[in-house]
Design goal:
240 residues; flat; single chain; Serine Threonine Protein Phosphatase 5, Tetratricopeptide repeat; 3 domains; mainly alpha; 73% helix
Length: 240
């Protein structure tokens, strides 16, 4: 690493992880050096191509990670002025809008950003999911079902669209249709109680009481295992 021999560093890390999988020291070293490689690569990008869309996105993402929402928003909008077809920018703007208290006008503004993202990048499952979520919040069930379905088709490895689809189908009274996506979600996220609860509802409403009872029991058991929040300690520096 000190000699900046990046290829050798990566090969060494791959070798260590192959020979000693799960070793805590190896995992620590891997984390440390991949982080350093990421930092060096980002610095190289900013030094060699500061005006590129990718470098500008990196800066905007840094603002976003630091919670500097206004600066991130301004940077993303500046990127769109120079690179109007850069994928991912409208999506990030939509997420930034939703990071604030949600009002009808904010929801509509975010929706426009996600729709603009799909015009540039029509295969974005994230944008489809966010549009589905906004439609769900607005009680537009048919619209939500359409977007959630498309998100699952675009990326079958994302769990949240399956839950969203199951929720929307249950709310629309389409219980038998809700079962497959909810079963997929439970398989992908077995520790999330929401999936079991919604799947139990779907089975109950389709007449499968035995399966509904089993899933509700699993739901209750998982709820019991959730860590309980400790009460906030009193401030003993103040008189009571």
């Amino acid at each position: 690493m000190s000699a900046d021999q990046i290829d050798a560093v990566v090969e060494s890390l791959l070798l260590l992880n192959r020979e000693f999988p799960g070793n805590p020291k190896v995992l620590y070293v891997t984390t440390r050096y991949y982080s350093e490689l990421a930092n060096r690569t980002a610095q190289r990008l900013l030094e060699t191509a500061a005006a590129s869309a990718e470098a500008q996105v990196l800066v905007a993402e840094a603002f976003q990670a630091q919670g500097r929402w206004e600066e991130a928003t301004a940077k993303y909008r500046k990127i769109l002025e120079e690179y109007p077809n850069q994928p991912g920018i409208h999506y990030q703007l939509g997420r930034l809008i939703l990071s604030k208290p949600l009002t009808p006008s904010a929801a509509e503004e975010a929706k426009k950003e996600f729709e603009a993202e799909l015009k540039i990048n029509p295969t974005s499952p994230a944008a489809e999911f966010m549009l589905g979520d906004l439609a769900w919040r607005a009680h537009k069930l048919d619209e939500a079902i359409e977007h959630f379905s498309r998100a699952t088709q675009l990326d079958a490895g994302l769990p949240q669209p399956y839950l969203g689809l199951g929720l929307a189908l249950n709310a629309a009274g389409k219980y038998s249709e809700a079962i497959p996506p909810l079963k997929t979600y439970v398989e992908m996220e077995p520790s999330d109680t929401a999936g079991y609860y919604q799947l139990a509802i779907a089975y109950a409403r389709t007449g499968n009481k035995q399966e509904a009872d089993r899933l509700m029991a699993l739901h209750r058991e998982l709820e019991k295992k959730k860590p309980q929040l400790m009460p906030a300690p009193q401030d003993i520096s103040q008189p009571h």
